[in-house]
Amino acid sequence: MSHVNQDLFDRARSIIPGGVNSPVRAFGSVGGTPRFLVEAHGATVVDAEGRDYVDLVASWGPAILGHAHPEVVAAVQEAAARGLSFGASTPSETELAEEIVGRLRAAGPSPLDKVRLVSTGTEATMTAIRLARGATGRDLLVKFAGHYHGHSDSLLAAAGSGLATLALPGSAGVPEAVARQTLVVPYNDEAALEAVFAEHGDSIAAIITEAAPANMGVVPPKPGFNAFIVDLAHRHGALVIIDEVLTGFRVGPAGYWGVSRRDAVDYQPDIFTFGKVVGGGMPLAALGGRAEIMDLLAPLGPVYQAGTLSGNPVAVAAGLTTLRLATDEVYSALDKVADTVSIAASAALTEAGVEHVVQRAGNLFSFVFSAETAHDYAAVQRQESWRYPAFFHSMLDHGVSLPPSVFEAWFVTAAHDEAAVSRILDALPHAARAAAAA
Ligand code: PMP
């Protein structure tokens, strides 16, 4: 037995809190030793012991083309050779903004006129909220329980994912005065949202919602729910921020908004946030919206936002090349892999007698270990989540790397070819039996 991963983890823990630079990586809810990765190509990641795994994490979303796509790597190398960071405008950042706006316009009449590039999803949502407050002159923010929008103060109430995994209600260090500005509402619950607006409608700056939540596992909006949110908010003079950091350019060429339009659901939010895929695996995110809102940002308007590395040329090269390679064929391939893997996992769980439901939004999916489809955070938390660690570790032992938490989506890539998929399919029956025995 090699102990390289364990040794690396021990060494990391002595110098990095919890041994990790982002909490869920610590295997807190599944136990065991996190794998320290040294390389990733296509659908495969390789750990420090030289073991390879078929990857269903995809860097938590960005790697839609698979890891280290040769054309993306070449574009990054070329950009790096021209200079890592200028702190000045570059032609390519405009091209990326045009690509983002163009993708939504191609899907239908779009409220996305202008885009600003930032470095993380957290920054994108934080800026979107400041912008909504600046635009409306109001303070209150409405978010949904179980939705994650990054780790800025206003957004850490009932925030799913890492917090759900760690069973934390929120975060220490958030001033009560700040927390009080955020109202948390159960997801997919029209009556609860109406009640909040009936009481606080005049003071609400914005509702922020994941386009299709995937940070409490996948919990898609009920048909028409996003349109309902937009209609209700606008009737009360509030704005709507659709957070597509995770779904944007992953579930389709125009994100989940585009998928909804394809299903004939139209809604015109005020601000979108993007991350992950838009940076092609580099630190890059974006927010965008109607021109009159976006022009409130400095230097034109009174809402301040800035960043030394915003629009970084190397990150822009990765994002732009990734988006240009993410054609309709790529999205069809992702849908097909998601079909195959989710159907096979469900069949294996059924065969092993494990009660479960497949939760799905576009090519994103996850499982709840319960008899009923989960429509909100409370339902997700009621599942038999203790079955997941056994399932997860069995998959890992059979060479498949899943997200180390039941509250996360599984991420497929266009590099999941037949060989990769068949390795996943071979592993599933063992994992399902392990979950049954848990
Ligand atoms: N919004 C959503 C929907 C996310 O999934 C995430 C990250 N998982 C964020 C915001 C925050 O992005 P980042 O981790 O880049 O700060």
UniProtKB/TrEMBL annotation:
One Pfam family cited in the UniProt record for this chain: Aminotran_3
Organism from which the protein derives: Labedella populi
Protein name: Glutamate-1-semialdehyde 2,1-aminomutase
HAMAP family (alphabetical): HemL_aminotrans_3
Record EC number: 5.4.3.8
This protein's record includes keyword Cytoplasm: yes
Necessary cofactors: pyridoxal 5'-phosphate
Family per record: Belongs to the class-III pyridoxal-phosphate-dependent aminotransferase family. HemL subfamily.
Catalytic activity field: (S)-4-amino-5-oxopentanoate = 5-aminolevulinate
NCBIfam families: hemL, PRK00062.1
PANTHER family: GLUTAMATE-1-SEMIALDEHYDE 2,1-AMINOMUTASE, GLUTAMATE-1-SEMIALDEHYDE 2,1-AMINOMUTASE 1, CHLOROPLASTIC-RELATED
